[in-house]
Specification:
By secondary structure, the chain is α/β, with parallel strands linked by helices. The protein contains 19 helices and 17 strands. The relative contact order is 0.14. It binds flavin mononucleotide. This is L-lactate dehydrogenase (cytochrome).
Amino acid sequence: MKNITPQEVAAHNKKDDLWIVIHGKVYDLTEFLPSHPGGQKIILKYAGQDATDAFDPIHPPDIISRYLSPDVCLGELDISHAGVMVKKESKADEQVRLAREKMPRLDEMYNVFDFESVAKTVLKPEAWAYYSSGADDEISMRENHNAFHRIWLRPRVMVNVKQLDLSTTMLGSNVSMPLYITGTALGKLGHPEGELVLTRAAAQKKIIQMIPTLASCSFDEIVDMARPEQPQWLQLYVNSDREVTKKFVQHAEHRGIKGLFVTVDAPQLGRREKDMRVKYSDDGPEEMDGQKDINRDEGAARYISTFIDPSLNWEDLAWLKSITTMPIMLKGIQTPEDAVLAARHGCSGIVISNHGGRQLDFAPSAIELLPEIMDALRAEGLDKNFEVYIDGGIRRGSDIFKAVALGAKGVGIGRPALFAMSTYGDEGVKKLIQLLQDELVMCMRLMGAPTINHITKDMVDIRNLKDHFVQSPVDYLGHHAYEQMLPRGRINKL
Ligand SMILES: Cc1cc2nc3c(=O)[nH]c(=O)nc-3n(C[C@H](O)[C@H](O)[C@H](O)COP(=O)(O)O)c2cc1C
């Protein structure tokens, strides 16, 4: 392959003559530019430069060889040559570097929220916006965790809780606790190794990782990273081109995936305004614009998801069942009616989810829906051999306890895993899972539940669960007295 000097690449920096470098290879993208699904500006921004860092988070590694003619690859960047492309540190990069230098130690993370606070300071703005955003006013996103505050516990005492066992099964796989890492797109926005970090941590902590269709790493890279016998699930966005989906699903089955989770709550991607605003500010230099009518509605989310088929409906389940023997689960069920339909259509289970509050704002939280969905399934005799999971807002071991008490086989975490991964990598994700495990241990012990099977519905009080208008009262008097006992200066930290 031809060697090309950085100076040569840099000379091809115009719209009608545009080279860029990705992973050491030089590409001529002049012809491709107008058809880039993410718009022209982002490519123009890197004209004549190395675009690897911008490319990696939002493209699977094999995308160029899959979609572009081999002719666009002109050769390899000559790294022996003097003056190899020096990447200028952008202001955003500098801020991230400085913030990372000031990160607290991992052993200073005491709960799931701590990871989020650190992530906010060290993630690049576009990564923070994509990971943290919810739809519209982000009411459902906040409600997801708040709803857990409306469930109170009914602890049983005088139970032998010397030995605890948190293990359970999920779709037939043995796991260490009723928790899995759910599918979230674009892992490399937060960490250079992306989803592989989650794969390794899941293996070490013996929990399941759901691989997202829109992972930054390729599907095979993620499966290759798994240990032998490590169970993995696949989150599926059904493509408008059904042949593409068929090939993907059958490949996943061949690679040993243990469950197919079809996302059903995203026929159109929600409006995530934080994400949209950042796209707005991260566009290329104005002088290279030429696209005055650029669509400002496209954040990272919309840009990567244009292929999702909005015509997907109940009739498609027969087709899905005909192409795979993997258990089919519907992710994003939000009413008892649809839960019953899923069971009637032969699904193996559901995930009650509002997509982390990223789709329909004012969709209820999964934990609020769980009791009525379990009741509906039981009433129809459909609750046997049908596994119900929930995700959204799980941030404490007691949240897991409450979900299991109300009938969930397990719960998924999305953002917490992303934030732990983005801040402290493998060790961070392992610590996060350990914290949740320790909290669940404490909760089970104090609740008098030595095993998962001992966690029952009568251990939770859900009388307020439906009351959206009730806020927890604030104990101002107590707060005030407590503050006065602290030395000055620490008061603000309360
Ligand atoms: C950054 C991000 C990306 C996500 N990507 C997907 C996706 O590609 N497919 C999907 O079905 N759900 C996706 N979700 C939703 C999650 O699977 C899950 O429902 C949600 O994150 C759970 O809420 P939590 O973040 O409060 O734990 C995503 C969520 C986040 C935060």
